[in-house]
Amino acid sequence: MMRFQARRLVALLAPLFVVAACSWEPSSPQMLNDRMQARLAPEIAAGQVAVQPLAAGTQVAIPEQSLFSPGSAQLSDKGRSILTYVIQALLEPTMLTIQVADASDSLQGARAAAVAQYFRDHSLGQQLQPTVIGTEVPVGPAGTPVQGMTITVNVVGPPVASS
Q1: Which pTM value belongs to this model?
Q2: Residue 71's domain is classified under what CATH number?
Q3: Residues 6 or more apart from 133 whose CB is under 8 A from it?
Q4: 5 in a domain, yes or no?
């Protein structure tokens, strides 16, 4: 009689354990950071980009020489390529906010505006938060400060159904 009840209990609970095991996923901020790390791996290895996990997302720091030609606020081909990799690593965009900050305050914010415009051009304008100029300088590879652009992406929640 006892064996029958134990088998019955196992048969009853087994599907719950299977569902729980199959539905477990890393948190969205962790997935976002993992995707950024993977997509930008060559640039990280070359010291052109630094990716730092945050509690609610991830921060990508890019030295100005990786994005712009000297003395210019126009994105270089390499800069557009790096920003494309950042966009490709994003999770569902309706779950995100994006903030662009220029830690060096170069060219009176024109470079931060160029990066923000690149995101707008790729249909991410609704996710953009106000651009910040002269923020805290993030730390890059080997603990060195990264003077340049910082892109902070935060996961804010599940997508909102449009009506």
Answers
A1: 0.71
A2: 3.30.1330.60
A3: 101, 102, 105, 109, 112
A4: no
Is residue 50 within 8 A of residue 139, CB to CB? The reply is yes
Which domain, by its residues, includes 75? 26-155
Phi, psi of 46 (to 5 degrees): -85, 0
- Residue 87 located in a structural domain: yes
Each residue's pLDDT, cut to its tens digit, for the chain (163 residues) gives 555 454 554 444 444 343 333 333 446 889 999 999 999 999 999 888 989 898 899 999 988 888 998 888 899 999 999 999 999 988 788 888 898 888 765 666 788 889 999 999 999 989 998 866 555 555 555 566 666 788 889 888 664 444 3
Number of folded domains in the chain? 1
